[in-house]
Specification:
The chain starts with 5 loop residues before the first helix and ends with a strand. The chain has 12 helices and 12 strands. The relative contact order is 0.10. α2 packs across α5 and α4 packs across α5. With 368 residues, the chain is an alpha/beta fold. The strands form 4 sheets. It has a 5-stranded parallel sheet with strand order 11-10-9-8-12, with helices on both faces. A 3-stranded antiparallel sheet has the order 1-2-3, sandwiched between helices. A two-stranded antiparallel sheet has the order 4-5.
């Protein structure tokens, strides 16, 4: 079991700056495909170009929460240029160290902050060309080529710098083994070294997109616990770099109905059905122990105490990670619902044929 410092335990038990920022100037979201940790950072930038406020929401282990808390504290008051230089080593040192198998958490914290700054610079009118924070590219061939030649730490992504020791790396042009920069040939297969890193990144990204795993999820239930399970799986898969599509059908359409305003429907029976079955993410009850709403209220309270994301939080995270929402037109027709009954985040309205077209490409297909 990892041994954590007092600072790590303090920031885990009493995290600072937790929460969303509705009017954020920049938002950055990252996920780790190995451990499933996810972080979202929100920043406010003042007129002098300093970080006036930093907030975060993290779904992950204690180290991930502690790292997020520490990054938010360290970044407050920094200029954008200073914050861009904040490294995983800085974060780990400020926490009085992290176990080796938790160093990737400090990578995520710094990356999420950098992503938020990149988002701010890309949307600011008249701003300078934003500094591009290099995206991580996931390994596509298992764990073969995953050790830094200098410190022998895990290299979880194709990156020109080791995230533990900071060493600059080159890569074999054939097997993509990480190599010392002074190497002239690969020690594993004797092939040459990539001379053009930009070309290498293009080749790797094309390979990853061609081989990207796809997940399709049928959301049939309109009950809170099952909706939470659906979005937990969807966000985790998207955070791992998978392409995710969610198809909401029959009672599942309740999950993506608007929470506010009346639902328009034709005919007395359909109006009665939608009155009794109003839906909306805030109205969903548990499949068991709902107890006229008391059980659902208790469950939401317990989730809040454990700092677990709400259904609305998971839905927002899913959209930021690129998860596609499809509403079933057959269910809509049966219930007399128009497109205006649904939240704006729904990507399309389609039938079973469209879903099956997506599912045929899928490597993971789930029915919840």
């Amino acid at each position: 079991m990892p041994t954590y410092s007092e600072k790590v335990m303090d920031h885990f038990m009493n995290p600072r700056n937790v929460g969303e920022m509705p009017d954020a100037d920049g938002v950055g979201t990252v996920g780790n495909p190995v451990c499933g940790d996810m972080m979202a950072f929100y920043i406010k930038v003042d007129d002098e170009g300093r970080l006036a406020d930093v907030k975060f929401k993290t779904f992950g282990c204690g180290a991930a929460i502690a790292v997020s808390s520490m990054v938010s504290e360290m970044a407050k008051g920094m200029t954008l240029e200073e914050a861009k230089k904040l490294s995983n080593r800085d974060v780990a040192n400020e926490l009085d160290g992290l176990p080796p198998n938790k160093m990737h958490c400090s990578n995520l914290g710094a990356d999420a902050l950098h992503k938020a700054i990149e988002d701010y610079e890309s949307r600011s009118p008249g701003a300078q060309e934003p500094v591009k924070i290099k995206d991580r590219i996931e390994l596509v061939e298992g764990d073969r080529h995953c050790m830094c030649p200098y410190c022998h730490s895990a290299v979880e992504e194709y990156d020109s710098t080791c995230r533990v020791c900071g060493a600059e790396l080159d890569f074999c042009s054939e097997c993509d083994e990480p190599l010392p920069q002074e190497a002239e040939e690969c020690s594993a297969c004797t092939a040459g070294v990539w001379q053009d890193n930009e070309k290498r990144n293009e080749v790797l990204e094309d390979r990853i997109m061609a081989e990207k795993e796809k997940v399709t999820i049928v959301v049939f239930s309109g009950e809170l616990d099952k909706a939470l399970a659906s979005f937990n799986i969807a966000t985790t898969a998207a955070g791992m770099g998978m392409d995710v599509t969610m198809f909401f059908t029959f009672w599942g359409v309740n999950v993506i109905k608007k929470n506010q305003g009346p639902l328009k429907s034709k005919g007395l029976m359909r109006k009665m059905l939608n009155w009794m079955n109003r839906g909306g993410s805030q109205r969903l009850g548990l499949s068991k122990f709902h107890m006229f709403g008391l059980g659902t209220w208790m469950m939401k309270k317990l989730m809040g105490e454990e700092r677990m994301p709400s259904l609305e939080d998971l839905m927002a995270t899913a959209k930021r990670l690129g998860v596609k929402f499809i509403a079933c037109t057959t269910s809509m027709g049966t219930m007399g619902l128009g497109e205006d009954a649904f939240i704006p985040e729904v990507d399309s309205f389609a039938g079973a044929a469209t879903f099956l077209g997506e599912a045929r490409k899928g490597t993971v297909n789930l029915f919840i």
